[in-house]
Amino acid sequence: MSVWSTSRDEGFTNACPVCGNRLIGDSEKGEQVCPTCGYVTLAPADSGPEWKAMDLEEKNKRVRVGAPTTLALHDYGLTTEIGRTMRDSHGKYLDPAMRATVEKMRKWQSRSRTINSEERGLSNVLSRISELCDALNLPDNVAETAAQIYRVSAKKKVAKSKSILGMTAATVYLACRKCGVSRTLKEVARASGMEKGSVARYFRLVLKEVEKEYVPPPSVEKYISKLVNVAKIDSRVEHLALTLSRKTSDSRISSGKAPAGLAAAYVYLSSVMVGAHLPQREVAEFAEVTEVTVRNRCREILDNYVIRQEFMQSK
After folding, report:
1. What is the average per-residue pLDDT within 135-148?
2. d(CA 301, CA 41)
């Protein structure tokens, strides 16, 4: 008896390729046999699920897929990780002997994920990037962008012999600017435990050698929304501050100015206009700028524009 295998691309036919008679199926073995000449064809395996779903909701609940790949892990998240729960499939705690075995397996599995020194260094930096993003409550796209920036810098040998903390803080800050997330250099430096000047130096290095192009900071509107949310200010102040920012968004006001200082000035002026009367010192503290900066930005706005309750016109 001869056997003929049919590939998935060729499909499967109900006619015998030798004599042309109709084939008889054997569902248990996954074969079809010609009753005349005995020719056997191997049916292609069914790649569909082994379960049935009556509607889309049930299908989404029963579907089983692995975790998506991520740039935040050195192996893109393709390997299996042994957890620390120390429970079996029934939720019961493991006995001491099995706990020691699982702990030894977890240790060796962790060692096998990093084969050489380059992978170990990449794994160390990417884990620090994830920790810093968690400390700053940053979204996942910022962590992914920071991981991609560091991968490029490591490939170009820019990160070689550089401080791990410095490169971590610099890539996270650059990722925040690329993703439009309002985090200042001071916030990133404080969360990473470094001086602001050191983080700025590494940021300029990464910007020059890796990014190659200037990445502008987030808009003033994002800083206004962040300041209002942090300080829990009335929404009327936010609405008026955003209106003032849109109507005065020209080079005379914003050129060469930090967006955090401008946002603090807009919020302070708006609070005065709506009668909230927020102390200038509190606004400066929440914006992490000095009172002198807030006063100077307010003076520049008032010197260039006439602010009225209904409308605003340029001088």
Report:
1. 90
2. 83
CATH code for position 5: 2.20.25
* CA atoms of 306 and 214, how far apart (whole Å): 33
Q: Are residues 224 and 268 in the same domain?
A: yes
Evaluate whether 265 touches 240 at the Cβ level (below 8 Å): no
pTM of the predicted protein model = 0.64
For the chain, the domain total comes to 3
Tokens of 208: 């020059």
Query: By percentage, how much of the chain surpasses pLDDT 90?
Result: 16
Q: Residue 224, class by beta-carbon neighbours within 10 Å (0-12 exposed, 13-18 middle, 19+ buried)? A: buried
Q: Which two tokens stand for residue 290?
A: 């000095």
Q: Please check whether residue 288 is in contact with residue 186, taking contact to mean a CB–CB distance below 8 angstroms.
A: yes
| pLDDT(26) > 60 | yes
Q: Which domain holds residue 237?
A: 220-314
**Amino acid letter, residue 228:** V
Position 33 scores a pLDDT of 82
pLDDT mean over 164-186: 90
What is the DSSP secondary-structure string of 181-220? Answer: ----HHHHHHHHT--HHHHHHHHHHHIIIII-S--PPPPH
Q: Which two tokens stand for residue 149?
A: 């920036």
Over range 122-144, report the average pLDDT: 90
